[in-house]
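User: Modeling request: complex.
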Amino acid sequence: MATRIDVSGLTAYYGNFKAVANVQFSIEPKNVTAFIGPSGCGKSTVLRTLNRMHEVLPGARVEGQVRMDGQDLYGAGVDPVNVRRNVGMVFQRPNPFPTMSIYENVIAGLKLNGTRKKALLDERVEQSLRGANLWEEVKDRLGRPGSGLSGGQQQRLCIARAIAVEPQVLLMDEPCSALDPISTLAIEDLIAQLKASYTIVIVTHNMQQASRVSDTTAFFTLDKTGDPGRLVEMDRTEKIFSNPTQKRTEDYITGRFG
Amino acid sequence: MSTTTIAPATSPGGMDLTGQKLSLTTLAAIGAGAVVATVLLYVVAPIDSKIQFVLIAGALYLIGQSVASGMVEGARKAVDRFVTTLVYLAFLLALIPLVAVLASVIAKGAQRVSYDFLTTSMRNIGARDAGGGIYHALVGTLEQIALASLFAVPFSMLVAIYLVEYGRGRISRTISFFVDVLTGLPSVIAGLFILSFYLLALNQNPSGFAGALALTILMIPIVVRSTEEMLKLVPNELREASYALGVARWRTILKIVVPTALPGIVTGVMLAVARVAGETAPLLLTIFGNDAINFNPFSGPQSALPLYIYSQAGAPQQVAVDRAWAAALTLIVLVMLLSAIARVAARFARVR
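Assistant: Request completed. Predicted assembly structure:
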């Protein structure tokens, strides 16, 4: 059920500001792809175009094509709500719903989309929490508020919430940047497991993390502040980190720039 | 003035990290000095206001403490102490009218409040009779507030949701502007509007419903403003998290945004209720007043607590004035009870 993603001629705007220009790449199914690059290069923007979250901000728009298994997300008649049901997302800061318990947080996506069967919900809660490596820690307190968990647990709760709706693709926008090294390790292990069933795209500022978790790495950069970000190079992760084709990639990963 | 000081300890590195500090005894001495000075002032020039005594003593303490602090602790601490004390004094000053009002209402109203007072009306009670009660006014007030809330709260919440979640550009700015204008609307104007529009132009009779309409006009801007502020406080990340789960926008607002803001919204609604519960002028023009019990807010004149207080307090007999004080106490307790119930209800709606 994992999906292939083909992006072509993608340009994203915030109002009149062109954030990324003419991005083109393909992502294989059941693959972890890391987006790296300096701040402001548009890697998060590109990630958000993959589930049509970019346009949630006022004035933001997208040109170009994003195909998931051949179907253009920006084609006529495509409902962004349906896109997001198939493309899950985990954010930089853990954001469990504060008014809901752990149980309710996990099934929020299902319940808000109309699933009412108790047996199915119970089953999906356990399955998703196990999938996010959180079940053992919270199984005795599913009725407690999600905001009472630690930061790392909250982030895994958010991952459980995202996979509970059984998406085809999972997008992660710097999922570990607010977490300590141990929680980060837990999330990275989880990514390695989730790879078996999902196509995963992860934005990270941490190059070690990119090299640890991803199969493919894409390097984005921008010439100077105010210019649009561009995709410089995308290749197998080992190649990007050992022998990149572009000089700019090499400068970035060796720490000579950005 | 005696100042106790702590000698600066010189640390091995040569950095002086300690500072001189005014001791509690010194501060107490300054306070005592301020009180004594004020007493002396009262002996020299007799003034008979107790509030002025507090003010003068407070001001003297403020000056004395700042000067002492400036000499011992230095300018930064002196300014800090000055502003801190000023804030506390301002707080006490603001508390005076509140406590005074509550104390006098309780003192003058408490002995007249009884089960009988709460459960009888003013029907067949003559001007000099000591009996009578507020049951008819209590019923009227509760019905009018309930109706006004029923009209104003859903409507205002929809307006606030539009302004925060959907409104862009000119329409939203225009609505926002008119809500601000409505906030400053004198309450008697709301009553006059219902009088001229509903009662006279549409040829209706005075009723609790007409009063509720006038109160609705007064509630709307308060509820819109407070709900708007509370919705703005909901972090955008929660909306995005919900969108990312494939939840439609209206459902996100209904199930995520509003529940998150609910305790604040309830507080805002209760402020609005408290405000309109004490309105007299619009009711004077719309419900007309009634000495008998009228349970039906849609037909016939009704009474209301503020109106009852107004008419009783204006009467020359002491028995009527006593009834007014007791009714005022009842009104305050009623508003407090409603607020408490609403808060408890809002708390129960959350997960623990």
